[in-house]
Amino acid sequence: MINGSVDMARLKPVRDLDVETLRAVFETVVLAPVSLTRLMLPGMLERGSGALLYGFGSSAKNPEPVLAGGGAAQGSLRNDVLALRAAVAGTGVTAAGITIGALIRGSDAEKLFDASEEARRGFDPERVDPADLAEILWGMATTGEPAEQVVGV
């Protein structure tokens, strides 16, 4: 699985977003996963089998003003994944994404969220177990379906 992870320190509200920050976010969130994909894809195509699975945060689909840079980058990666899926259709290789709009139990993100009243800002997000995500991803890898799975809001 390739994760379009966002460095939380680089998150800025849309009105404060600058080119330098956005460039750095795109480097990590888009260009690194694309580079990994380009390394793995030829072997998969040669074998005629394989699954490229990508993880996104909810702002990849649902823009949030406070997550503008990360959302723009993850949305870009999401579109690339769906285009790649179409491009490799019929080859035995699949590409798919999981958009996670929930806190993963036991994750650093959950710990940070729970430790800070400021981070919570009155939100009580859905929480998901890593084992449940693993089951979803295993199904996507073995069946090639769906193109995109959304967990949480």
Automatic annotation (TrEMBL):
Classification via SUPFAM superfamilies: NAD(P)-binding Rossmann-fold domains
Domain of life: Bacteria
UniProt cross-references to InterPro entries, sorted A to Z: NAD(P)-bd_dom_sf
Identification of the protein by name: Short-chain dehydrogenase
